[in-house]
Amino acid sequence: MYAYQGLFKNEFEGLVYPGEVVGRSNTISGEEILRDIWQVEMAYSKWVDLFVLIGMALFYRILFLVIIKITEKGKNIIAVLSAARRKPSIQIMENPIATPLHGDNNYVVAL
């Protein structure tokens, strides 16, 4: 809405067109076109429309940044909580190329 109103105000304000409508003068102003045909709010300037658009763009960029940062923090918190809930597991790896020791009760423990 603000973009179109700003565009129309920029294009039509200050211009005068030849009018061929019955009951009107020979000319029609751009303000009349905006007010009567396009029904644009003429109470404020086209610059207000521009500043509103810039404000909306900044607001949405900041909102997007906040959402991204909250999501990043949330992922870290979830990762920490899920890691704390897991039980530590012991992994035993067997070397398939190692040959067994000779003897019945001769085990080697590596620390």
From TrEMBL:
Ranges annotated as spanning the membrane: 50-68
Entry-linked InterPro entries: Plant_ABCG
Keywords: Membrane, Transmembrane, Transmembrane helix, Transport
Similarity-based family: Belongs to the ABC transporter superfamily. ABCG family. Eye pigment precursor importer (TC 3.A.1.204) subfamily.
Protein name (Swiss-Prot/TrEMBL): CDR ABC transporter domain-containing protein
Phylogenetic classification of the source organism: Eukaryota, Viridiplantae, Streptophyta, Embryophyta, Tracheophyta
